[in-house]
User: Fold this.
Amino acid sequence: MAARRSGPGGLLRSSAVVSLGVGLSRVTGLARTAVLAAVLGTTALADGYNLANSTPNVIYDLMLGGVLAATLIPVIVERMEADDQRSIDAIATWVVTALVGVTVLGVALSPLIIRAYTIFKGDRAAADAQISVAVPLLVMFMPQVLLYGLDTLFTALLNAKRRFAAPAFAPVLNNVVVICVLLAFQRVAGTDLSIDAVLDDKPALFLLGLGTTAGIVALVVVLVPAMVRAGIRIRPNFDHRNPALRSVVRLSGWMVGYVVANQVSLWLMKALVNGTGEGRASGFEYAWQFFQLPYGLVAVAVMTAFMPELSSLASRGDRQGYRQRLGQGYRLAMMVIIPVTVLYVTLATPAIRLLLRQLLGTVISSAFTESSVGLTASMLTWLALGLPFFVTFLFMMRGFYARRDTRTPFIVSLWQNGVQIGLSLALAAVMGFQGALLGFTLAYAFGALMAMGRLARQTGGMGPVVARALGRYLLAALFMAPMAWGVAQVIGSGGFVHTAAQLVVATGIGGGTYVLVLWLLGSDDLALLGQLRGRAATTATTAATAETATAGEQRTIDV
Assistant:
């Protein structure tokens, strides 16, 4: 049962399929967020829904997600190459067994889990109301833990067989199903989105809960025909002494602590934000989707393209080549992430108004009010301040992984999360949710510097070329920011067309200013884009694998 080989033409086709699937997944994911915002807004019901719906992701990653994403694919590929079906069966059997156990435990602990999100709420009546709707929703959402695990397992098996289409497009089906469920809920529930009204309307409550989970069922079920066509058969094998299973456990190692540390700080940030008032938890979830978008579209693509060569250079002991390639990848990522950060900070309000209020408000009744716009835009602005540090931190983590070093990322992440917990608690007490988000930014700035320092001691650093490039990007951003903001102020806000024009023109002039300043500075950085395009055809397998891992990792705050 050896994995199917692909020549250059096959790799190019696979790359195109993965890219199309990922692109559609991002677009439909953004549409899903827009529909969710339009249907539920930033109401107390929305807070309960969003907290409950994000919890299976947290539990899955806390228990198994990051571990499975980091270890399953290499071990399964190795066992397939050796035609060792019994080992693959043993891995799948014990993964599913563990997932079922975690799911059952999660259902039993649902009331305690939801209460943990409300510990910072001063208004206990509001906290009790949130608990009353979030607990039954979480019970209906908890099977998603098992489903996410099956998705990771099935995708790993398909990727090992060089089958990428179904895993790439499956998230699109999930998004479409949930969009339909939300629109149906709006028709069933009507305009009264109070918690009491929804609790009294059992069909609406079950539609919202079970319908959302049905989207994850679709995500998994659509992979089954692809597995059948690929000749993948799994049979129960409870051999806990199987060497491949032990290899998965051994490779997990430091990754377990890494994921746990990230999940603790994520829970704290959500609990702190939720404790500052109604709508805060939902505003954070909507803003977080926008915050993750440039990372998923830009940084992950760059990491995917450069990771195979970085790993090869590290294994050969070529420190100079490793430093050069790491520096090139980092420059390319930051060249895009820095201007995106500027756009988020300067244009957050028109972007949120257009995409979450006005776009769907023209065709359906929207619960996303102008106050929801202000709240979500404010959260996006505070989060965006940390975007360059977030990307830097995670890029350095990939640098360690390329060197087969998982211990250092754990240590650095432990420090970063410790700093985030301390700062978020202290600053939230003074500034509210803004303090919690500022703690996130400052902690990732600390973690990024620490990670760069540790990696520099191992490899000699990325050198003055990267420092000069960052200086050019920052200088260009300083010219870009007032241009984008000023144009937006001159055009002003209005209806859908007016806001769209405001956003497009301000983005175009701001982006043009950024590129112009880089050109005037004699920068050759834009030529790096050609390098990434040149690598695309040779990284299809890695791209699909990275997207699988990233889907799990992005549910955690660490990607």
